Amino acid sequence: MSKPVKAAVFGTGSWGTAFGTVLADAGCEVTLWARRAQLADTVNSTRSNPDYLPGVELPENLRATADPAEAARDADFTVLAIPSQTLRDNLAAWRPLLAPGTVLVSLMKGVELGTTMRMSEVIEDVAEVGRDRIAVVTGPNLAKEIASRRPAAAVVACTDESVAQRLQAACHTPYFRPYTNTDVVGCELGGAVKNVIGLAVGIADGMGLGDNAKGSLITRGLAETTRLGLAMGADPLTFSGLAGLGDLVATCSSPLSRNHTFGTNLGKGMTLQETIAVTRQTAEGVKSCESVLDLARRHGVDMPITETVVGIVHEGKPPMVALKELMSRSAKPERR
């Protein structure tokens, strides 16, 4: 009888806990690393994570610890589920603890400020492992729905398809259906840029601009993402799949989306600091919009919606002024 797959999940936020639940439901032995020992104790004693997923019962084969060495020990898969801008420093501390041959799995959807590196690139740089040992899980994956075992699909991406297939088998459950992809660049860009477009759609919803505006922003946002992807060597078909359109629609449509909710509050007139104060969890697009725009400029790609979001979020531009500037751009063919 073969031994069960072991998985370590670094991060006990909503998505880390939800994906840990998926892995456990698929038959893996899962250890969550929690930054706070009190939360780890609560997970173990109550089979729940009341801070991030209240009311969700966690599987018996999922346990938590505040000791990173204990979490990482003998893990076949080491899942990273922390805010993207904290990855570099945290992973540098965890690197000596990683199990030999473990596959590093990114759940993070962001672009690093300053370096404009995708998360898999940061992992490769810090952990000094080959790309065939780095995988990405992405798609329309709202954590609360998945933790509640509601149906969802996702993309498991790795440059080595056999590694992607191993991870696919490790997280395939009756309610969570993963598909493999070898286009890591496209999958990561889809996940990172959709957060920025989610902010834009949220702002529009907060301003009461209607569904035509929402549909337009989603479509033109996907065009921006695809342009950037093509410039960086991604497969354009990725952006019409789960990692592109699927994730974008879920983020821009659901009140469960942190980025959409953050944008809605801005659109209603709250200041950036007021919005941050009422937001309990990280809205990745708030910081990543700057690095995405920087990445676009380095590749000579025009991303007007992203530029508008940066203007509102980081430059204090009133949403109505930003909207008028966006709508007054010169007319051009759709496919350009």
From TrEMBL:
Residues 183-323 form the Glycerol-3-phosphate dehydrogenase NAD-dependent C-terminal domain. It comes from Streptomyces galilaeus. The active site is at residue 194. PANTHER family: GLYCEROL-3-PHOSPHATE DEHYDROGENASE, GLYCEROL-3-PHOSPHATE DEHYDROGENASE [NAD(+)] 2, CHLOROPLASTIC. Transmembrane segments: none annotated. NADPH binds at residues 14-15, 35-36, 52, 109, 143, 258, 284. Residues 6-163 form the Glycerol-3-phosphate dehydrogenase NAD-dependent N-terminal domain. Sn-glycerol 3-phosphate binds at residues 109, 139, 194, 247, 257-259. InterPro entries: 6-PGluconate_DH-like_C_sf, 6PGD_dom2, G3P_DH_NAD-dep, G3P_DH_NAD-dep_C, G3P_DH_NAD-dep_N, NAD(P)-bd_dom_sf. Pathway: Membrane lipid metabolism; glycerophospholipid metabolism. It is an enzyme of class 1 (oxidoreductase). It comes from the Bacteria. Catalyzes the reduction of the glycolytic intermediate dihydroxyacetone phosphate (DHAP) to sn-glycerol 3-phosphate (G3P), the key precursor for phospholipid synthesis. Its main location: cytoplasm. The lineage of its organism: Bacteria, Bacillati, Actinomycetota, Actinomycetes, Kitasatosporales. Its EC number is 1.1.1.94. This is Glycerol-3-phosphate dehydrogenase [NAD(P)+]. Keywords: Cytoplasm, Lipid biosynthesis, Lipid metabolism, NAD, NADP, Nucleotide-binding, Oxidoreductase, Phospholipid biosynthesis, Phospholipid metabolism. It is found in: Cytoplasm. NCBIfam families: PRK00094.1-2, PRK00094.1-4. Belongs to the NAD-dependent glycerol-3-phosphate dehydrogenase family.
